[in-house]
Design brief:
With 346 residues, this protein is an alpha/beta fold. 42% of the residues lie in helices and 13% in strands. The chain has an eight-stranded parallel sheet. Strands 1-12 form a two-stranded antiparallel ribbon. The structure holds flavin mononucleotide (FMN).
């Protein structure tokens, strides 16, 4: 069995049942989470022949940061349930693969400790009702060396999860979330998500931090353009791993429209959701993504193999990408253009 495919079952053996369910589940009826991977497999390739693929180069830059591989790690919470060192182990594993990661604002690790690992990282931010909390987090992230701010825009309210057992919040010990806030300092109301955001928030975040801002959760070309016009340095095409609006379209379907809307703007395009194979990465890059992010696979790999597991995940996906590129006649990421793919369901 392919190692990546074995990870979830192996992680399930190690994780409390409620945590495993929390990692894997989608919201509501689970339509979007179930469709994500299959949607990447709806594309077929039109490979080139008679091109020199004796060397294949996977290096690129993400918002100016060089990375060896176009596979990054998406922000996820509760990483201390996967590994006692949580985000520190995740960052170390990503760093060993010479990639980069986004870190959840719910992280169980302080941004100062995270910065000391040395792996390039982006802060994922939920703007919350009490803006002082958001400002405090932004300042801590800047001090910890974050290289960008990822604004999660698909969460004006948290998607409902349907649990057939105790919820994760009933079983996790204290201290595993929000390590960058003083415990007890704020009430539930302060921490609830802002539901009045407009594109102006992009400039507000950029001004406060001096960092490039990516908007995560974009699924439409018109919204991507609004983000770009408001100064976003990038967008992440995402449906939050199927955890927000259930029935939101698969990112594999949304990506071409977003990439077309941003052509020529210089706004970088990223994508996540259901990416599990090198062929999926190749499809995403051909359809206009600069790099992809993986969420759950990184949690499973961290659970099963700690930081070395995360490194192996990124290395395995990159090796699969390199192999697929050779077979498709592509020797560099720039060779991956939309004409390489056709969708078989259109
Ligand atoms: C357990 C879990 C926690 C997550 N926490 C966050 C979060 O704190 N902030 C955020 O923007 N996205 C969060 N996400 C969404 C991921 O960043 C990402 O969009 C998604 O997992 C990608 O899909 P994939 O898991 O199929 O790779 C979370 C996802 C999971 C599975």
């Amino acid at each position: 069995m392919r190692w990546i495919d074995s990870l979830e079952a192996a992680a399930a053996e190690k994780l409390p049942e409620a945590v495993h369910r929390y990692f894997r589940q989608g919201s509501a009826g689970g339509i979007s989470v179930a469709e994500a991977t299959a949607a990447w497999s709806q594309y077929r390739f039109r490979p080139h022949v008679l091109t020199d693929v004796s060397t294949v180069d996977l290096k690129t830059t993400v918002l100016g940061t060089p990375v060896d591989v176009p596979v990054l790690v998406a922000p996820t919470s509760l990483q201390r349930q996967a590994d006692s060192d949580g985000e520190l182990a995740m960052a170390a594993g990503v760093g060993a693969a010479h990639s980069a990661l986004a870190v959840s604002s719910n992280a169980g690790t302080t941004f100062a400790e995270l910065g000391a690992v040395g792996t390039p990282w982006w802060l994922q931010i939920y703007v919350v009702k009490n803006r002082d909390i958001t400002l405090k987090m932004l300042d801590a992230a800047v001090a910890g060396g974050a290289r960008a701010v990822v604004l999660t825009a698909d969460t004006p309210v948290v998607g409902r999860k349907e649990n057939d057992g105790p919820s994760v919040w009933e079983v996790i010990p204290p201290g595993q979330l929000l390590a960058n806030l003083d415990e007890g300092e704020y009430g539930e109301d302060d921490l609830s998500k802002a539901d009045d955001l407009t594109p102006d928030v992009i400039g507000w975040l950029a001004e406060r931090t001096g960092l490039p801002v990516l908007v995560k959760g974009v699924l439409r070309g018109d919204d991507a353009k609004r983000c770009s016009d408001a100064g976003a340095a990038g967008v992440i095409v995402s449906n939050h791993g199927g955890r927000q609006l259930d029935g939101a379209i698969p990112t594999a379907q949304a990506l071409p429209e977003v990439a077309a809307a941003l052509a020529g703007t210089g706004t970088e395009v990223y994508v996540d959701g259901g990416i599990r194979r090198g062929e999926h990465v190749m499809t995403a890059l051909a359809l206009g993504a600069r790099a992809v992010l993986v969420g759950r696979p990184a949690l499973w790999a961290l659970t099963v193999g700690g930081s070395a597991g995360v490194t192996r995940l990124l290395t395995d996906l990159s090796e699969e990408l390199e192999h697929a590129m050779r077979l498709a006649g592509a020797s560099a990421l720039d060779d991956l253009t939309p004409d390489l793919c056709v969708s078989i369901d259109r």
